[in-house]
Every structure is written in C-alpha cells, then in structure tokens.
User: Fold Delta(12) fatty acid desaturase-like protein from Tanacetum coccineum.
Amino acid sequence: MGAGGRMSDSSEHGTKDILKRVPVDPPFSLSDLKKAIPAHCFERSVIRSSYYVVHDLIVTYVFYFLANTYIPLLPTPLAYLAWPVYWFCQASILTGLWVIGHECGHHAFSDYQWIDDTVGFILHSALFTPYFSWKYSHRNHHANTNSIDNDEVYIPKRKSKVTYHSKILNNLPGRVFTLVFRLTLGFPLYLLTNISGKKYGRFANHFDPLSPIFTERERIQVVLSDIGILALIYAVKLLVAAKGAAWVACMYGLPVLGVHMFFVLITYLHHTHLSLPHYDSTEWNWIREALSTIDRDFGFLNRVFHDVTHTHVLHHLISYIPHYHAKEARDAIKPVLGEFYKIDRTPIFKAMWREAKECIYIEPDEDSEHKGTYWYHKQ
Assistant:
C-alpha cells in the first residue's frame, strides 16, 4: 500500500470500496508531494484572484437585481417557487465568495499578507463570519486535524461518551432533526459556544478576545473581527429601517444562512467518513492528520465553490495553493498518494444521510496494534 496504488473512487469501485479504510502509515513525505507539483501551482496572483472576486460580485448583483425586480411582479404561487430558487442561487455564489475569504486566511490570495487580510476581512464580515477569529481557530484545526485531543472542530465522541440524547435521536426523525439543527445552527453555535469544538478549561467563543482559543498577539485582531460584525449588524439595522425586515430577510438573510449551511455541509462531509481514522496523542502526527480527510463531488457546484469541495485532501497538505491551481496540483500528487487519496462521489444528500446514520462514535479496533487509532462506528 502506498505510492503508485490505485485511487479509491466510488464511481469506479462502488460503495463497498469507498468505505474501505485508508492506510495509516504513508511511505512518502510532504517534500515528495511538493516535488510532484508543477512549480507554477504555488504562484499566487493578486490580479487573477481579484478576477474571481469581481466575477462573483457581478453574479451576486445580477441575482439580486433579477429577484428584486421581477419576483415581486410574479403571481403569488410562482413567487413562492421563485424565492427558493433565488436563495439557492445566491447562497451558492456567496459561498464561492466565502471560500475566497477562507483562501485569504491561508495566505493563498496574493503575495501580500495585508491584501489577503483586507479582502478576507471584508468578504467574511459581509457574510457574518469574524474573519481573524475564524482564521486563527481554523489554523489550529489545520495544525491538529483528526487529533482527538487537540483538533479544533468536528471532534467525534468515543463510545463511552455517547450521550443519552444521542441514543434517543438515533432513528429516522432524530437524524432528520440532527441534520437540520447542524446545518442551520451549527456554524453560529460553533462561533458563539464552540459547540463540537475543542474542550477548553473554560467557556470559549470566537467573539471574546480573551477566549482560550486565541494567543495574546491575536487578541487585538479578534477585536477587529468583532468591529466588522458590529458594523454589519448596524448596516442590516439601517436596511431594515429603510426596506423592512421581510425584504432584508429575503434578499440577504436567507442567502447568508444558505452560505452557513453550505459551509457546514462541506466541512462535515470532508471530515466525517467511515474510512477516515482519528488519532490520540500516542499515534497522531502531522502527515497522518493531513491525509485523514476526503474529497467530495458536489457536481456543478464544485466550480461555483471554486473547487474547495474536491481538492480538500490537497488543501490539508498544502493550504496556500490558490484554488485556480488546486485541481492541477491534486492530480499531480495522486500517483504519489495512491491508496492514501480518497474521493467519494456518492450523491451529496445520500452521503449526508449515510454519515449521520453510520458515523456515531469512534473506537480503536480491539485486535489492532494501533491502539491510538480510532475509527467511526454506528450504534
């Protein structure tokens, strides 16, 4: 197993193979992977990156103009159909802008950190995301992915920690409730209460500059993030006063909620899969954690989301490669990764339901020599 092996792909091998566990001991190094990637894939262009921002902003305005101008003219039954179409389309393109803001946090937008932070701060603040706060907690996630002890988010429960209410919800209506709750409230609650995140010695959230999530030198930028969110709240208040709460909710509020839902869905599926290992401190190391993610296929939305969906394994290995080089870089390292690369092309709704049903808790295999390696199990 290792370099040169066949890549697992559900379109080629079926569901059984895509759920097959990935190996845990890679025979290659990060240096080997970087050498396989063409040099130009590491180049960041502020002009090219800015093109995607402008493009997405133009599309965003077109969707806004069409909805604001024509949906109110439709008969009521057609309007009820048109609004969800607008919310989906606008949320999709805004998610693309959110992804560019996320790239800024990884210094993948340009060669200049101040440009990246300025663009990221504006884009994320406009989408109700505290840019610097999330940038730093997300950095911690990249540094500790799939560590049971130190990862920042999506930390699964061990069997002994499965709560009573989780057992009650382990049925069809319970899973529907859990998925709806996770998609709609998961991101706001993570920011506010660190739900599903690392357990600190005290209450932690993304808006408190004194939160244990952050270091001393990061606290002033957390304050800047808060100012950005407060400015947005004030702008929304002015819009409500001028246009009404219903208009603001339809044109802006629900599309932004859609962005948060897409974000949670994408990240949940990237880090939740029966084939992916988790490690305690006795077996965790960086190259193992970077390989313990999976790419997903969102169909035509892959392009709308700037390919973040199906280049996530690469992203955890080398996070500063711009999205417009990501597919080429991913394809370049596939032969080196071999069996350590996985992409699951299961339809998204089916995959979401399967993971919610099957990935309940983690436990090590009783007969394994890797006692610090944990795998998902169902109840």
